[in-house]
Amino acid sequence: MVYLAIVISIIILALAIPLIETLRWWRLWHNNIPKQPHTQQWSRALVFLTGISDFSDPELSTEQKYFVEKLPSLLKTDLNIATPFPYNSDICKRYTQINMVRRLFGTPLPMWVCSLHNFWQTALAVLWKRRYGKSVARCLRTTLGEIESQHTIFFVCGSAGAAIALAAIPDLVEDSNANIVIISYGGIFCFHKGSLYVTRHLQFVGEKDIWVRMWRFTMRQSWWANRFQKKAIGDCRYQCYNTGPHYHFDERGYLSLCVEPLTEKTYQQLTFEKIRAQILSSEERY
């Protein structure tokens, strides 16, 4: 019984510490959002929302950088927001000073810690979407500046990024009819009110991504999620595509630069080619 109690305590601590850090990180960037939005002219914006997170790191990973570099020419964007959310390196520096997780586990953070950051962000975006979504929308408004009806915003999302985007979109576009396109690879999210504001949602899922399958099974039991899902599918605003033999992350993940043996292409190439094909074949003009 003593050993069982110790194991349970360790599990609780392992879950609780990343949650506490996620909430501290949220509070830090929420309280330091500039009051005045940036002034800039744009018509098509790329907003990259990462999934797995080390809140202290102001840079994207090498794989993410290679991927994002290919997107502006494909999406024809004239504003590209492609650093880790909340797109402010000063926040990362300030968070580093209070980062309990990094002190415990060192650098780089273990994947399971980053994954739990990802999980708790998803939970906040799904279960507390009004409060968390408003915070994210406020941050994005400051970063993007004024959003007008003729604007198009492409959210390119990994994992939790899709849930975060959907939570923020209702407040982000409440004063405009801007076109919103979500491109999510391995996205973990639930359909809710935010889905109704999306012009088009393209989801790309790997054959071996068990995390997305588990999440879909869980969400399938929620009648409210099904209602919005049916609406999005019925309006032809949501489509899901297979990317190939991808796992959720690691060396066989969506953005991995490792070569897939059968196709002799990198896993990132397979992901990008699927996205490119759907963007180019679309009859809609964003």
Question: Could you name the key traits of this structure?
Answer:
Rossmann fold; alpha/beta; about 290 residues; two-stranded antiparallel ribbon; six-stranded parallel β-sheet
Number of helices: 11
Query: From the structure provided, what is the oligomeric state, counting identical versus distinct chains?
Result: single chain
Shape: globular
Unreliable spans: none
Structural class: alpha/beta
Task: Fill in the CATH topology of one domain.
Answer: Rossmann fold
Radius of gyration: 19 Å
Helical content band: 40-55%
Report strand order across the widest sheet.
2-1-3-4-5-6
Second CATH tier, the architecture of one domain: 3-Layer(aba) Sandwich
Average pLDDT works out at: 87
Please report which band the strand proportion falls in: under 5%, 5-15%, 15-25%, 25-35%, 35-45% or over 45%.
Answer: 5-15%
**CATH class division of one domain:** Alpha Beta
Distance separating the two termini: 60 Å
User: H/E element string?
Assistant: HEHHEHHHHEHEEHHEEEH
Count of individual beta strands: 8
Largest sheet: 6 strands, parallel
